[in-house]
């Protein structure tokens, strides 16, 4: 049996702003996690109430652009770095999702004009972490970018990865969604 241990991670952002809404429903219970990044101190790490559970050191509350309200999380990505520990935000589930459960993840992303996707091999944008019942990492269900800004759909659990013909938008908000139903 696999279960999602509750890490929804996003990487990348020369400065991109994101709004997350994560919804889970199952046969016995349902919960929603959302982050709108409102009413928090601009320039501080985008953690805590209305923010991520774990934000990177370059993931900060901002008023530069907003999808809803007045604020978003701004992730500053320095050209050439991997972004690990710096340019990410994670949300943890209150309880694991076990076999047969479902999860919907949605994020609103804004990549500003001048954004450059050049990287090898891929850039991780929106991800759901999957572990086995012992808590050992199994892989991620992801939306990623290839090095020319095409959406890559990846299921590491099933060893499946597809590069689509669809490009990420630049200079406008876009809504990315992942739905997963976990096998028994
Ligand atoms: Ca907002």
Structure commentary:
Mean pLDDT is 84; it is low at 1-17. This protein has strands at residues 2-3, 8-11, 15-25, 30-35, 54-55, 59-62, 72-76, 88-91, 102-110, 123-132, 137-145, 150-155, 160-167, 173-181. The protein has one domain (2-117, 169-181). With 184 residues, it is mostly beta strands. The strands form two sheets. Strands 1, 2, 5, 8, 10, 11, 12 and 13 form an eight-stranded antiparallel sheet that branches. A hairpin with a 4-residue loop joins strand 3 (15-25) and strand 4. The structure holds calcium ion. Residues 19, 36-38, 66, 68-69, 71-72 line the site of calcium ion.
| Helix content range | under 10%
Strand content: over 45%
Number of strands: 14
| Radius of gyration, whole Å | 16 Å
- Structural class by SSE content: mainly beta
Q: How many separate helices? A: 0
List keywords for this structure.
disordered N terminus, 184 residues, globular, mainly beta, 0% helix, single chain, binds calcium ion
Summarize the structure.
The protein is an all-beta fold and 184 residues long. The chain has strands spanning 2-3, 8-11, 15-25, 30-35, 54-55, 59-62, 72-76, 88-91, 102-110, 123-132, 137-145, 150-155, 160-167, 173-181.
């Amino acid at each position: 049996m696999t279960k999602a241990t509750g890490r929804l991670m996003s990487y990348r952002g020369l400065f991109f702003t994101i709004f997350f809404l994560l919804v889970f429903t199952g046969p016995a219970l349902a919960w929603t996690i959302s982050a709108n990044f409102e009413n928090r101190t601009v320039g501080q790490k985008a953690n805590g109430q209305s923010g991520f559970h774990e934000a990177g050191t370059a993931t900060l509350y901002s008023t530069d652009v907003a999808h809803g309200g007045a604020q978003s999380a701004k992730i500053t990505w320095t050209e050439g770095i991997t972004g690990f520990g710096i340019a990410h935000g994670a949300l943890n589930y209150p309880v694991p999702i076990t076999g047969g459960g479902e999860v919907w993840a949605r994020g609103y992303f804004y990549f500003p004009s001048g954004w450059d996707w050049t990287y090898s091999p891929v850039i991780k944008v929106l991800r759901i972490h999957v572990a086995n019942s012992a808590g050992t990492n199994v892989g991620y269900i992801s939306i990623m970018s290839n090095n020319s800004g095409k959406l890559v759909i990846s299921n590491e659990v099933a060893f499946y990865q597809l590069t689509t013909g669809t490009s990420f938008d630049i200079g406008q908000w876009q809504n990315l969604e992942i739905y997963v139903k976990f096998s028994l």
